[in-house]
TrEMBL record:
This is HPP family protein. It comes from the Bacteria. Residues 13-163 form the HPP transmembrane region domain. Keywords: Membrane, Transmembrane, Transmembrane helix. It comes from Halomonas nitroreducens. It holds the Pfam family TM_HPP. The chain crosses the membrane at residues 20-38, 45-66, 72-89, 94-114, 134-153.
């Protein structure tokens, strides 16, 4: 078993300077926009998994996990699972474990896998989210805002095209 863990592949090449700058600008712009909207509207639109969403959107925009349907759908599905599990099982360790497991399975079944969204059931339970309006704010508003920033940032220049698909 241990021999399987030693690896054997090579480290991927360093991204080019444009991709590194895209990651920098995307992270600053995406989280900056959502944080600014939070302050402006006095409605919490920001949650920790959005930081990891920015990594996928701006450092690996070609990945299936970074496409709009995965970002928005994954966050919505996982948050919904978290709310339902919290309603039925509470917020204890078992509820958290079931929430994350069911969220993963639901994202896979619906073809909207987005790894950062796997944390949403934990966010729901640890924040004490009350009501299904949590799906609109912060989940939908925040994830759509990040996708809109990604549309702008990831399409700068003539040779860049994002997303690979919508639905």
């Amino acid at each position: 078993m241990l021999h399987k863990m030693k690896g054997g592949g090579t480290v991927p090449a360093r991204p080019d300077t444009l991709q590194i700058l895209t990651g920098l600008m995307g992270g600053v712009s995406g989280i900056g926009l959502v944080a600014w909207l939070t302050r402006l509207t006095e409605v919490p639109l920001l949650m920790a998994p959005f930081g990891a969403t920015c990594v996928l959107l701006f450092a690996a925009p070609g990945a299936p996990l970074a496409q709009p349907r995965n970002v928005i759908g994954g966050h919505l599905v996982s948050a919904l699972v978290g709310l339902i599990v919290m309603q039925w099982l509470g917020t204890g360790p078992l509820a958290m474990a079931v929430g994350v497991g069911v969220a993963i399975a639901a994202m896979q079944a619906l073809r909207v896998v987005h790894p950062p969204a796997g944390a949403n059931p934990l966010v729901v339970m640890m924040s004490g989210a009350v009501g299904y309006d949590f799906l609109l704010m912060p989940v939908l508003a925040g994830s759509v805002s990040l996708v809109l920033v990604a549309l702008l940032i990831n399409n700068l220049g003539t040779e860049r095209r994002w997303p690979n698909y919508w639905l």
